[in-house]
Amino acid sequence: PGLVLETRVAKRTAAAGDRIDARCGIVDTLGRPALDPHGDPLSDSVAFVITYEDQDAFAQGGEGQVIAAHAGAAIVRCSAPELGLIADPVALTIVAGPPVRVITQLAEPVAVAGDPVAASCLAFDAFDNPVTGAPQALVLSPMAPGSETTASSVTATRAGAYTVSCVIGGAADVAEDFLAVVPALPSSLVAV
Q1: pLDDT in tens, 28-55
Q2: Model pTM?
Q3: What is the residue-wise DSSP string for 140-183?
Q4: Is the distance from CB of 8 to CB of 23 less than 8 angstroms?
């Protein structure tokens, strides 16, 4: 009589890969731990069921613990079937984890020597959630004299085949893109 089941989580926002440390507890109407007839916490002797909804938002970690997986909204809820108690749900927000994979995308596969080509970096965490806002840099290879890179473009001044790669801290799996640079027209033509 007068028992309340609570769902407790360590934090309401978790990054993909974080452990979801959900716990259940039974309290009385004043919020104190409910006790059994022997004066022991009722929470120690009751079997709880923890439900994770949306199930796709979660995964099982290496040690069998539940971890956040896919970015979005999710719910955790405790129940105590033998007592007929169901707790109010606890809403969680799952955000992308740290970047581990990056894809380099050039706006154009062919450029004229000296013309900048826009490039973008698509980063993903270990669960394929898009990661935004990570500091990035572009690398042009081979790097010839006069060539330059910014955070969002590359410019090669010599004709040839180049590889462009995004560099984002922590992202070891990098898919590069390829750029063919053709000679520019001469700046002037002289008739002979």
Answers
A1: 888 899 988 888 898 898 999 999 998 8
A2: 0.81
A3: EES--TT-EE-SSEEE--S-EEEEEEEEETT--EEE-EEEEEEP
A4: yes
